[in-house]
Write a structure and sequence with these properties.
Length: 360
């Protein structure tokens, strides 16, 4: 949607009154209207006698500029207000007051929080982006909105660099990016570590057997620390797919009387080709080559909330999967399918790790 992007202080000077378009700045010594209380331009100081039409036009322009709408948008509101029942002027102001941007300002005045969309990455957002050559950072929001970012680790402000197009990163960098409302209020910044990596080498294993080694521990554990502190010896078995991590006992809709357990599966995953892979899972933990990749500890396990990425060479890589049977936020982790999904950096969709890719 089109919007006015020029200097806002010029509007106040043109209308001959403070429109409070820059918030707190309008009450400081920096206010342009206080410093130059005349219309902008070469003939701004000239005194002009306004006709009746000019007076009506200036009042209309004040209303339009206070609510931040362009002429075409304002005309549309007027047409609807004229068609609605009641007084046209009152209807027009009611429609303008209902605008989302204006409603957010009023909520701020009452100290009420509301949702501000965060910048998102295509094909799934990730706060750790690995790359080998360069990383192209692309962001969108679920509704058109200004985004600002920094590349030096500092917190972004409304005056920071405005995101207008994807940008490339060639060295390890911390990207901080946030959405900015027309009022100047910012959403919570996202912090994304973009790290340059070399391909993690594959393991050379003389002989492997399909499936993963799994150890099952009876009892309910809310965290991995609880499981480690129990120091129990589990029942060992071999599983063919990651799905078997979560289906060792039936998981009915009520979950009443279900005997909970924890499970740890270890082995190897066969990476089909060199590249950077994004990793997603709703399990408690996913480890690859001894590094904790996904950690959903303490989270509701309905969705994967901590996707990550790594540069992996073609071949076998050690994998460790941790499942804890429990209920957090009203969602039993047993209802999940236990899948671990991969997406190569140049692909659009995640695909689950299949039985053919697992061995021990």
């Amino acid at each position: 949607m089109a919007k006015y992007n020029d200097a806002k202080c010029r509007l106040c000077r043109r209308e001959g009154t403070k429109l409070l378009l820059k918030g707190d700045r309008c009450f400081t010594d920096k206010c342009a209207f206080d410093r130059r209380p005349y219309a902008p331009g070469q003939h701004g100081r000239a005194r002009k006698k306004l006709s009746d039409y000019a007076v009506q036009l200036r009042e209309k322009q004040k209303v339009r500029r206070v609510y931040g709408v362009l002429e075409k948008q304002f005309h549309g509101y007027f047409v609807h207000a004229d068609m609605a029942k009641g007084v046209t002027g009152a209807n027009l102001l009611a429609f303008l007051e209902r605008r989302l941007d204006n409603a957010q300002v009023r909520l701020d005045g009452h100290g009420i929080n509301y949702y501000i969309p965060q910048p998102e990455q295509p094909n799934g957002s990730c706060n750790f982006v690995a790359f080998t050559d360069k990383a192209t950072m692309t962001f969108t929001t679920n509704r058109p909105m200004k985004m600002v970012y920094t590349l030096d680790g500092t917190e972004p402000t409304p005056e920071s660099t405005v995101y207008t197009a994807p940008f490339d990163i060639t060295e390890t960098t911390t990207v901080k990016i946030a959405s900015v409302l027309p009022s100047g209020k910012m959403g919570k910044p996202r912090t994304i570590l973009v790290e340059k990596q070399t391909l993690a080498p594959a393991k050379e294993v003389a002989k492997t057997t399909p499936g993963l080694d799994m150890e099952v521990f009876d009892g309910m554990y809310l965290s991995v620390n609880n499981l480690e502190a129990a120091q129990k010896t589990g029942k060992k078995q071999v599983i063919k797919t990651t799905r078997e991590l979560t289906n060792q006992v039936p998981a009915p809709e009520s979950m009443r009387g279900v005997k909970q357990y924890a499970a740890i599966a270890t082995g190897y995953v066969n990476i089909p080709e060199d590249g950077v892979y994004y990793i997603s899972s709703d399990l408690e933990e996913v480890w690859i080559d001894g590094k904790l990749m996904v950690n959903n500890g303490g989270e509701v396990k309905r969705f994967s909330r901590h996707d990550t990425s790594a540069a992996l060479a073609k071949g076998l890589h050690e994998i460790k999967l941790v499942f804890l049977g429990h209920i957090i936020g009203g969602w039993p982790s047993n209802w999940n399918d236990g899948s671990v999904q991969l997406r190569k950096s140049d692909a659009e969709k995640f695909t689950p790790i299949t039985a053919e890719m697992l061995s021990h």
